[in-house]
Design brief:
Blueprint lengths: L2 H13 L2 H8 L3 H15 L4 E3 L4 E3 L1 H28 L4 E7 L5 H14 L3 E7 L2 H9 L5 E5 L10 E14 L14 E2 H4 L3 E2 L8 H11 L5 E2 L7 H9 L5 E4 L11 E5 L7 E9 L6 H12 L1 H6 L10
Helix pairs in contact: 1-2, 1-3, 1-4, 2-3
C-alpha cells in the first residue's frame, strides 16, 4: 500500500471533491484519481460514490474511513517521532480520544495551547477505552480524553481532570406518532418499553446506557445486533429497528425532528461527562506538562465561557 495514496483518500473524504483534494495534495486530479483507484482495487471495493457535482463516501468507504485515517495519522506521528529524535527542537504531544468525544470541543480548547507552544505538533489518536488505557500506561500517549469512569477506588496512578459534559439525546424509531414528536424531554421510565440499538462497547456509550437504566431500576431491552457507528445507530432508528441514545454532538441534523432530550431523576437533563487523564508519576517533557497544566487551569474557564451546548462537568 502506497501511503501517498492513503493521503489522497483522506483528502478526498475531507474535501468531498477530487479537484480540491488534488489541490490540497499538490498533485494533478488524474494522479489523485489513479491513486485512489489503486487503493480501491487493493481493498476490493469502491470507497467513493462519484457524481458530476460531488464525491461522497460509499457505505464501504464509510466503514473503512476511521481505519484509513488512523493509518494516515500514525504515519504522520512516525515521521514526527523521527524528526524529534534527530532534532530535539521538534516537539509533539499525543492525545488519545474515545470515539464518543466531541473532537470539535477538543480542538477549540487546544487552540490557546498551540499558540503558547509554537512549533509543537498535536497528534490525535482515536481508540476504544481499553486501548486508550494500555497506550497511556505504555507511554504511547501523553493524555487521553474519555467518558468519565466510575471507580470504587480511583487508581492513584492516574490524574483525572473534568473536561466537559454533554446532553444525552433520545432518538425515537421512525414510526413514532407525529403527535409525540418534539413534545419535550423524555424520562427513562417513559421509554423503558422500547427496544434500543446500542453501539460498540469499546467507546463507553453502551455501558453508560446500561448503567442509566440500571440506576433507575429499569430493564433495558437491547436489540440483539450491534451497530458499528453512531451514524448506523441513527439509521437503524430511522428504519424502525429500535430507538437509541446518543450524545448531542453525534446527532445528525436530518434526525433532529425526531430527537428529544433525555431526562434523569428530577426531570433534569441527562448528561455524559468527559475527563482528561494522564499518568501521575510519568516524566513528561516540559511542553507535555504544559498541556496538562492547560487542562487543569485554563480549560475549565474556556468551557465555562463557551457558547456551545456543552457545559463543564461538575
Amino acid at each position: 500500500m502506497n501511503l501517498r495514496h492513503v493521503e489522497f483518500v483522506v483528502a478526498a473524504a475531507a474535501e468531498r471533491s477530487f479537484s480540491r483534494a488534488a489541490e490540497r495534495c499538490h498533485v494533478t486530479q488524474p494522479t489523485l484519481s489513479n491513486g485512489i483507484a489503486l487503493i480501491e482495487a487493493e481493498f476490493g471495493g469502491q470507497l467513493f460514490v462519484r457524481t458530476t457535482r460531488k464525491v461522497e463516501l460509499s457505505p464501504f468507504g464509510t466503514q473503512l474511513m476511521p481505519l484509513i485515517e488512523a493509518l494516515y495519522r500514525a504515519h504522520g506521528e512516525l515521521k514526527s517521532g523521527v524528526r524529534s529524535f534527530y532534532d530535539p527542537a521538534q516537539r509533539m504531544v499525543r492525545v488519545g480520544l474515545s470515539p464518543l468525544v466531541d473532537a470539535r470541543r477538543v480542538t477549540e480548547v487546544m487552540d490557546p495551547y498551540e499558540r503558547s507552544e509554537a512549533g509543537c505538533r498535536i497528534f490525535f489518536k482515536e481508540c476504544f477505552l481499553g486501548d486508550l488505557e494500555d497506550r497511556l500506561q505504555s507511554s504511547q500517549l501523553d493524555m487521553m480524553i474519555r467518558p468519565r469512569q466510575e471507580y470504587a477506588r480511583p487508581p492513584r496512578s492516574l490524574v483525572r481532570v473534568s473536561f466537559y459534559e454533554e446532553p444525552l439525546i433520545y432518538l425515537a424509531r421512525h414510526d413514532l406518532p407525529a403527535t409525540d414528536r418534539n413534545a419535550g424531554g423524555v424520562t427513562l421510565k417513559d421509554i423503558a418499553g422500547e427496544t434500543f440499538v446500542l453501539g460498540p462497547d469499546g467507546c463507553g456509550l453502551a455501558s453508560m446506557t446500561r448503567s442509566l437504566f440500571q440506576k433507575a431500576g429499569l430493564r433495558l431491552k437491547e436489540y440483539r445486533g450491534q451497530a458499528l457507528s453512531y451514524q448506523v445507530m441513527q439509521e437503524w432508528a430511522d428504519i424502525g429497528i429500535g430507538a437509541t441514545i446518543i450524545p448531542q454532538s453525534k446527532l445528525a441534523p436530518h434526525y433532529r425532528d425526531r430527537a428529544r432530550p433525555l431526562l434523569a431523576a428530577g426531570r433534569r437533563p441527562a448528561h455524559v461527562q468527559f475527563e482528561a487523564v494522564w499518568m501521575r508519576e510519568a516524566a513528561y517533557p516540559r511542553h507535555v506538562s504544559a498541556l496538562h497544566q492547560h487542562f487543569r487551569d485554563r480549560v475549565p474557564r474556556l468551557v465555562q465561557g463557551s457558547t456551545g451546548a456543552t457545559r463543564p462537568a461538575q
